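TASK: fixed-backbone design
INPUT:
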């Protein structure tokens, strides 16, 4: 931890999420300057524009999303290490699948947080990482989904395609199912997630870590 307040860099392509995260992390007593970027390229460009002698000092902690435009967070690690050599890097992801956590460790990350973590959990993690401690505050292994959600493998396939904005007809074709069977799976998914429409289902699924990132809106899909 530097003697000065820590300089944080938030890298996420969703502006709304960055804004919410900023409101949380700015409450930490050890945090000073907070910078933002929507991609790895934008973050590296920021390093060139704001050298260590200004802009709040060198970046001490990077909070990094995995799913980013252009280059994902995992592949962007070397570039970030080069641009911010003294910074600790913590992934903040909607997905907390064990494979993703293991990959973060293998790539040399200093921590891994769920986007659904509470504000207190995030602040505690920041304190730990700034103190030099690794912080992988997510389940170490897979288990039952939260809130009693229990999707079948086929329902997970349907949800994955829903999250990509596919209409029922396309989902049926890609999974070699009838359209009525797909509608049945969609109805079951809605019931499991406690929602009544696709948008709410995708938001709920993202919160639970069942899908990693919501697609850009591409117009209405066919009804469930």
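OUTPUT:
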């Amino acid at each position: 931890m530097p003697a000065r307040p820590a300089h944080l860099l938030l890298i996420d392509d969703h502006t709304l999420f960055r804004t919410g995260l900023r409101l949380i992390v700015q409450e930490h007593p050890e945090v000073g300057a907070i910078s933002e970027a929507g991609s790895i390229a934008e973050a590296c460009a920021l390093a060139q524009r704001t050298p260590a002698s200004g802009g709040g000092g060198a970046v001490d902690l990077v909070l990094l999303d995995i799913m980013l435009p252009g280059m994902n967070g995992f592949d962007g690690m070397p570039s970030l290490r080069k641009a911010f050599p003294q910074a600790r890097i913590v992934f903040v992801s909607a997905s907390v699948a064990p494979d993703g956590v293991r990959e973060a460790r293998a790539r040399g990350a200093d921590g891994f947080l769920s986007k659904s973590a509470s504000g207190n959990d995030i602040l505690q993690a920041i304190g730990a990482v700034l103190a030099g401690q690794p912080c992988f505050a997510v389940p170490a292994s897979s288990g039952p989904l939260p809130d009693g959600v229990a999707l079948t493998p086929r329902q997970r396939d349907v949800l994955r395609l829903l999250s990509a904005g596919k209409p029922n007809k396309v989902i049926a074709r890609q999974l070699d199912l009838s359209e009525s069977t797909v509608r049945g799976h969609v109805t079951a998914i809605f019931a499991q997630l406690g929602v009544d429409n696709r948008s709410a289902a995708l938001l709920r699924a993202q919160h639970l870590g069942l899908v990693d990132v919501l697609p850009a809106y591409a117009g209405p899909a066919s009804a469930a």
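COMMENT: Residues 139-144, 213-224 have pLDDT under 50 and may be disordered.
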